[in-house]
Write a structure and sequence with these properties.
Length: about 575
């Protein structure tokens, strides 16, 4: 498995697309790195760039981008709403797959050193890459911004971690860090007042606001025994926030960095800002996502807002995303395209191989009917199983909205959620069955001239054949799980949809029996007879169990139909 990291450098230019493109061209020139998103902001005069790839390649792309930014951005002329201290203001690395935070922090320090040594740019390491405790917080590293760097460098406590302690006037300074996935999220207000927006930001951000004696606005600032200002914490953990006015949109915003969406997700942040704004007589009109967001964050948001409406959460991902967008007004300022803003969708769009499940129903049938050996019966079995899961889920969703059953919406919602998960698993197996077939074909295509090549080819064929058994067995297990929700919906679901539960049971039987045929035919070429016997026995038990339960469901369905 490849190690993958994300890098999200912020460049101090958001208006001149020619300058931005020169920087992103350097990123795209590095093989092994994918440029996922470029998000310029005119008012902030700042562009957030997102790339992902293997560690060494991402470090090279990041370095080249920082180098180009230093050449073509002049901080002496820069103005913008967002705090900044350099041409490349921040450059965080984020672990994505098969890499620890500790490893990512070491990579960040390696990049910081190279920037300092080769480009003569002063660098602070922050978050998990911080070399000193007082530099963990990015806001502390950036305090005083570009204009305060010369004075800052004279303080022994704030000498740069890497690079010169004399200001590079053109490039400024850069902060390089390692952090968890951060979501940059702005909430739109129906006011133009920066002061009022800041008041809301102080209400919600983890740091909170300065404690004052008596009058919370004009009272004397309270300090502790060490002379440090005392803060009253805000209501949201792992959230940084400020208020600002965006001339481009003509509104004030609460600009938030959600530094741990496992602690404070976007939907909780949005609702909390709504509450605090309402308490101050201000209305939230929508929101804006800067950069990319994980799919799970959007799905969780959709489920959260559906639950508030007491509606079933067991709907398709596309519907959950639509609910999230509309509930938070993510499309108020400009269109919100999930394929461009959700990290998993952007990565999938870059894949060269297209999936069977992305075909239309007609296209899938035509592809199956072609002279190619794949997709075949195994993929069809998985697809039929997914249809059984879809029917059971449909009955659950209809039942959750049935008039007079309002108090049972959660019961049916849980069934529908399980059905969606099983449907998605079976849809994955549609393509995976074809992948298993291709593995066998690839193994047979290996060279066989020498004795060593023959042995390696034989081992590859055996391994691929076993995998070609495991996939249909997985189809059988998953489909048998579908039968559980089919049974429940036949007995407890909306009686008017009971025939749909019956058809779902027929689909499950077809999926299980069809998958078992694939288990048996792929077992023929496997030399490990003990393994084969165990798998065939497991399949036989599941097939027998499925047929028994299907007969029971059909009896129940017909009894209910006869009573209607």
């Amino acid at each position: 498995m490849k190690k993958l990291i994300e890098c999200v450098p912020n460049f101090s230019e958001g208006r001149d697309m020619h300058i931005i493109k020169q920087i992103t061209d350097k990123i795209e020139a590095v093989e092994g790195v994918k440029l996922l998103d470029v998000d310029p902001g005119a008012a902030t005069n700042r562009t957030v760039v997102t790339m992902v790839g293997t560690p060494d390649e991402v470090l090279e792309a990041a370095f080249q981008a920082v180098k180009k930014a230093a050449e073509i951005i002049d901080m002496r002329k820069h103005k913008g709403e967002h705090p900044r201290m350099g041409a490349t203001d921040v450059c965080p690395l984020i672990p994505i797959a098969n890499i620890t935070m500790e490893e990512t922090a070491e990579l960040a320090r390696k990049l910081a050193k190279r920037i300092g040594d080769e480009l003569s740019i002063s660098v602070y390491c922050y978050e998990n890459a911080a070399l000193k405790p007082n530099r963990k917080n990015l806001a502390s590293c950036r305090a005083g911004e570009y204009e305060g760097l010369s004075a800052k460098f004279t303080d022994a406590e704030w000498k740069p971690d890497f690079g010169p302690d004399v200001l590079n006037e053109k490039a400024g300074a850069t902060a390089v860090g390692a952090r968890d996935f951060l979501v940059a999220f702005n909430v739109n207000l129906n006011t133009t007042s920066t002061r009022r927006a800041n008041s809301i930001a102080y209400d919600v951000r983890e740091r909170g606001r300065v404690l004052r004696e008596g009058d919370p606005i004009n009272g004397k600032i309270v300090k502790d025994e060490k002379g440090n200002q005392v803060y009253v914490p805000g209501t949201l953990k792992s959230v940084k926030a400020i208020g600002w006015f965006i001339e481009e949109y003509g509104i004030a915003q609460i600009s938030m960095n959600l530094t741990n969406i496992g602690i404070t997700p976007v939907h909780i942040a949005f609702d909390e800002v709504c509450r605090k704004a309402d308490a101050r007589g201000i209305r939230v009109t929508g929101s804006e996502l800067v950069g990319l967001i994980p799919l799970k964050a959007m799905l969780d948001a959709g489920k959260y807002f559906l639950a508030k409406q007491q509606r079933s959460l067991g709907v398709d991902d596309d519907e959950l995303i639509k609910i999230a967008i509309k509930s938070m007004g993510l499309d108020e300022l400009k269109p919100f395209h999930p394929q461009e803003k959700i990290i998993e969708y952007v990565l999938a769009a870059n894949e060269k191989t297209k999936k069977l499940v992305d075909l239309s129903a007609k296209g899938f049938a035509n592809e199956t009917a072609s002279e190619s050996a794949a997709p075949g019966g195994g993929s069809i079995a998985a697809y039929v199983g997914s249809l059984g899961a879809a029917l059971a889920t449909m009955v659950a969703n209809l039942s959750s909205h049935k008039r007079g059953w309002d108090d049972r919406w959660e019961e049916f919602s849980k069934v529908a959620e399980k059905g969606q998960a099983l449907k998605n698993e079976l849809l994955f197996l549609v393509d995976e069955d074809t992948n298993a077939f291709n593995r066998i074909m690839d193994a047979f295509g290996l060279p066989k001239k020498t004795d060593n090549e023959k042995q390696l080819r034989k081992e590859a064929i055996q391994a691929a054949s076993k995998y070609a058994i495991e996939i249909p067995l997985r189809v059988m297990r998953t489909s048998l799980s579908v039968m559980e929700i089919v049974e429940k919906m036949a007995v407890d679901g909306n009686p008017n949809s009971v025939s749909d539960a019956g058809v779902g049971a027929l689909c499950v039987r077809t999926a299980v029996m069809g998958a078992y045929l694939n288990v048996k035919i792929n077992a023929a070429g496997i030399e490990d007879k003990e393994y084969v016997e165990a798998k065939l026995a497991e399949g036989a038990v599941m097939q027998e169990e499925t047929i028994r339960r299907e007969n029971q469901v059909l009896m129940t369905v017909n009894e209910i139909i006869n009573q209607l």
